[in-house]
Amino acid sequence: MEDMAKYPGLTKRKGTNNYQLRRKVPVDLQEQYGKKEITRSLRTSNYHDAVEKYRIETMKLDQEFAEERRKHATVQIRELSQIEIERLAAIAYYDELKEDEDKRTNGLSEIEHADYKELLETLESEGRERLARGDTQSIEDYAEELLAEQGISLDKDTEDFKKLTMKLLEGFVKANKVMRERHRGQPIPTPTKPAPMPTAEKNHPLAATPTITEIHKMWAKEHLAGGGPKKTATDFAIYVRRFAELHGDLPVGEITKPHVRDFKDAMLRLPSRFTGKLKGMTVPKALEYAAKNQNIRTLSPRTVNDKALGAIGAILSWAVDNGYIDHNPASKVKVKAAKVKGTTRLPYSVEDMNKIFRFPVYTNGERPIGGRGEAAYWLPLLAAFTGARLEEIGQLTVEDIKEERGVTFFDMTTVGEGQRRKTESSKRRVPIHPQLVKLGILKYANSMKKGRLFPEVRSNQGQITASFSQWWGRYARKHGITDKRKVFHSFRHAAKDGFREGGVEEQISDALTGHAPRTEGRKYGSDAYPITQLAAGIEKLVYPGLDLGHLLQNK
């Protein structure tokens, strides 16, 4: 009985009964051969004769490929990094599953399906046994071929070659397990194809190009020296590390648009939280885990665009600006996600605020740990009656409260220790709303004497109010504000509505809230307006129907 499933590439020539061998040309040799596949006639219609000739021709091709590789120089290295080892293992893992996927796409007869099942069981059993013994001899030739395809030559006697073969063997065992699950009808997808390792030809002219992690370090040093937020540098470091785990720590001159595209695709499949079993996993490992646990929550398209691709794009843009590369390969690479209705932030309504200012913080004197003392009481009120960003009011100091021409105001023009401003237009003076004065904000500030108004609000990776923001979301939902589109920033949106309600001119409300001018030629920043004009604007910020009488009773 003919069983060609055991002999990949053994097929019958179209229009004849004769057999032929079809063999894929290895990726690293396709340029030399000028094609992706070789076809050789076995000149027989007898199955058993064809199998013998198939074996002979396969050996000849293996020798031919090896000779071609010897003709072309590769990079002789003495060691591989752990990232490079995992990268090579990911390539091998992909190749195994892609070949299996192609086989199933082409279809298997009942006999082929049964034989393939037996083969997979044998391979998995033998693989596990070899893995348990640390016997990698059977995979050494494959490892050399894989390295050669990537333009690398590594001595078989090195410790890193042994590590690579063990990692490959481990990957084959896992791949065989996945293939067996597919054989039982489980629809497990093939992972995204990893980008190839840098080859000798690519490395040579770019030897002096810094790697992406080195570029990030240079960027971060400059960013922090210029007063940029530490959190941004920390966030960027996370995604630069993930890029390097996926592709290797590539010199920036070797990074191509396909690298960035594959990174984008991988991030869309990456778990959003690295906790539990995922803790400490590299990106390739986490992607494997996610493929087997398809209900796991992954990064949203917005996070991939804003954070992952945003970080890589910014780092590579810096490399362009500083002359390390000529163009940014991350340019225009983004997730094309359809806009989902109802995902934008909404302002708090007056009804919401009447509910908020009757939370236990305001009625029972409750001070939850996450609310950071008096910040839980004052930050929502300050946000509602200034329209300022949470970070701006969270970092206020006693010294930021000043007076000019009889107007008491928050001075947000300076950048003191631990403070930062989002934009140039964020530097402004904001008169203190009469309602805040009635509620006792100045009395509270005098009790603090000096330093931060809310000292219990502590910095988290360079952002003072990050933890408070998370607490507020949980606390507000617990007490009835359940619309996820309404967050602390909703106070800022509500203030914009409040200014409009009070008839405040747009340029004045923009100056008070720190928005950049919306048309050219418009005055820029609150310094462009007299403090008395700004005070008149803030007094018109109103919320018809908002009742804070219960907060004024004890003042």
TrEMBL record:
GO term, biological process aspect, one: DNA integration
A Pfam family annotated for this UniProt entry: Phage_integrase
Gene3D superfamilies listed in its UniProt record: 1.10.150.130, Intergrase catalytic core (1.10.443.10)
Family classification: Belongs to the 'phage' integrase family.
UniProt-recorded name of the protein: Tyrosine-type recombinase/integrase
Keywords of this entry: DNA recombination, DNA-binding
Source lineage: Bacteria, Pseudomonadati, Thermodesulfobacteriota, Desulfovibrionia, Desulfovibrionales
Residue ranges of domain Tyr recombinase in the record: 343-538
Domain of life: Bacteria
Gene Ontology molecular function terms on file: DNA binding
InterPro entries for this protein: DNA_brk_join_enz, DUF6538, Integrase-like_cat_sf, Integrase_catalytic, Integrase_recombinase_N, Tyrosine_recombinase_XerCD
